[in-house]
Design a protein that fits this description.
Radius of gyration of chain A: 21 Å
Number of helices of chain B: 9
Number of domains of chain A: 1
Oligomer: heterodimer
Largest sheet of chain B: 6 strands, mixed
Strand order of the largest sheet of chain B: 6-7-8-3-9-10
Order of helices and strands of chain B: EEEHEEHEHHHEHEHEEHH
Helix content of chain A: over 70%
Structural class of chain A: mainly alpha
CATH superfamily of chain A: MetI-like
Number of strands of chain B: 10
CATH architecture of chain A: Orthogonal Bundle
CATH topology of chain B: Rossmann fold
Number of helices of chain A: 10
Structural class of chain B: alpha/beta
Helix content of chain B: 25-40%
Chain lengths: 245, 249
Amino acid sequence: MPETVNAFLAEYGELLLEGTGSTIVMVLVPTAISYVIGLALGVVLYLTAPGSLRPMPALSAALGWVVNILRSFPFIVLMVFIIPFTRLVMGTGSGILGTIPPLVLSASPFIARMVEQSLAEVPRESVEAVEACGASIPRIVFSALLPEALPSIVRGVAVVLISVLGYTAMAGAIGAGGLGDIAVRYGYYRRVEEVMWVAVIILIVIVQVIQSVCDLAARRVDHRGQAAVTAAGRRAKADRDLIKR
Amino acid sequence: MIQIQHLTKTYGTTLDAPHALEDVTIDVADGDIMGIIGMSGAGKSTLVRCINLLERPTAGKIVVDGQDVTGLSGAALRSYRRRVAMIFQSFGLLAQKTVLANVCFPFLAATGKVTAENRERALELLDMVGLREKANSYPSQLSGGQQQRVAIARALACDPEYILCDEATSALDPASTNTILKLLRDINRSTGVTVIVITHSMGVVEKICKNVVVLEHGRVVEQGSVADVFADPKSQAAKVLLERVEWDA
């Protein structure tokens, strides 16, 4: 048995290691860039919504449109569709560098919606109380809204990272490599199923790590007490169930 | 002095949109504790939220010390809001900030920073509401009554001339309600701050208010001193609120 493992590692170890590295880079770098854009966009979506702190129906509708259009593209289609743009900004349309623009363009609107929703969960009276103190809108956003929404935003990070991880599986189409690409190439084209299995297991481990780290971080930054947190979670779930029906 | 003049608020833009408030005129004298009472949906919350312009009136004016504040915006609106503090039914505290940071928030809102003197003042206010030892706790670790006392300390941080209470005791048990009402009365006596209390409970009005306005369907149907209105309620709404009618009639 150990000989089989050693033989496997000798043949595919480096490939899998490199693939894991590529996947991690393709997840972390675009997500970090996307959060800069997505946070700003999410705050603007929240503030300009009807009945919010600075309602601007035209801007809100226009941004909503852009966000929805970008979110309508299946990632693999978006990636191919914008290759000319990717070449323009990155100097290349392929490889890991070539995945950054489409991943950012996919993840930013997604993050914007998650952030908007996290902000909307902040109790109305808390926001009004701060407004009634005579706080300016930037003060409300930076000193009240974002800190109050932080645990929810951190939970959103896990969802976003895991989605981006899913997108990177398609990056093989433009030669960027990564675990998803390895799983497809070896599992589907070459029929070396062990490699596919190991790639899938590594992906599962990465997802578990992302979720656990984000859950832990969210609990660390949340001061609402367990009762309030579970109540909020239950409400959110009840709402989702209602919408599904 | 706050003068509410011919205030009208409608939601929606159609001509027959329902009136939340219709031609409401009330004078609130400095140092008064004024009760605004009515059933659910009578428009009392809308009224109090128009006073600090959390809602914009459709027509009419809010005049404070002779100045029309109805059209204020930007920095002028923010500085007006510092003169008019507000406390809410579900307290409106920031759950992710400590009690002390919550009480210090008005300083942050006013100046962009919290100084050592600000913190000192916040601790004095917490002392006054009996919660100094909870300064480093989070709101979730406090009872409802305690959270409302924190909200009162926060309201007092910017030395307001007026305090608006929007159903401030409706979520509290009778003992906590009494504590909050005593606190409001004592603050009114010691600082002369004018208090406007929105409630559907005549008990609250009876305990602390000097004058009372009865709202029904967005209109003022009765106003006067608490003694007069209680002795001889004229409007049907006041009679119902005072339980002077047969409950199953």
